[in-house]
Automatic annotation (TrEMBL):
One of its GO terms (cellular component) is membrane protein complex. Residues 9-246 form the ABC transporter domain. Keywords: ATP-binding, Nucleotide-binding, Transport. InterPro entries: AAA+_ATPase (IPR003593), ABC_transporter-like_ATP-bd (IPR003439), ABC_transporter-like_CS (IPR017871), ABC_transpr_LolD-like (IPR015854), MacB-like_ATP-bd (IPR017911), P-loop_NTPase (IPR027417). SMART domains: AAA. It comes from Micromonospora echinofusca. This is Putative ABC transport system ATP-binding protein. One of its GO terms (molecular function) is transmembrane transporter activity.
Amino acid sequence: METTTGSTVRVAGLVRRFGAGPQQVTAVDDVSLEIPAGTVVALTGPSGSGKSTLLHMIGAIEQVDAGTITVDEREITALGRAALTRYRQRVGFVFQRYHLLPALTVLDNVTVPVLPRRGRADHAARARELLDAVGLAGRERALPAQLSGGQQQRVAIARALMGAPGLLLADEPTGNLDSATGGQILDLLLDLRDRHGMTILLATHERAVAARCDRLVRLGDGRIVEDVDLTDGEDPAATFRRAAGLRL
Ligand code: ADP
Ligand code: MG
């Protein structure tokens, strides 16, 4: 698999509002975060606290009302159209419901992000490599419906890796899976961090998932209400004990 280097992400004073007048909701309310390369951040908080909106803004698929997003020293919020499109093609996005195209084979689902570009044979070769890396070698010609939920999420992760991202954004990636399968998906994400230094921002409701991340950022009504380093000089057992007591 092509080697990537993790991205550094800086978010400053980020705001996103929906609606107008008395019905207006501030989905993300003055959020600032510095995420060093190679960190796996669990983004937690109740439903409606702004997790998805924040991930979408960092992935440049949601408008920003105020504030800045800087990835690897490039201010995303200041990019023009063409540069934004290139940025979106590089960032990996994984969703709770996989978002695979049901009529396409596993292999074609993985190459979807690069379909309009040239060098299809190369793309297929890379897609095969990625499917192998996520444990799906031999399933290239299957249709999504023929796979289990965990396997479908692996396809979605392979697709997200197609652009060799330094940053992976995952919105409740284990939310549709039983805990054992969800644990395997998290193993896969942590392995990407270990082997490629990938930076991962992962929204989750699940305490067991958050506890295995490097850092926990909890949102409440669009604001950061808790930001804890789960690794800081602690041995893994102590990190686990502390994380086990975390409120999510
Ligand atoms: P979470 O992912 O933590 O559940 P969201 O980011 O989806 O939270 O939502 C945060 C708030 O913004 C909620 O009040 C939600 O209803 C609102 N919201 C999100 N997206 C939209 C939208 N496209 N239009 C209107 N309101 C939205
Ligand atoms: Mg959400």
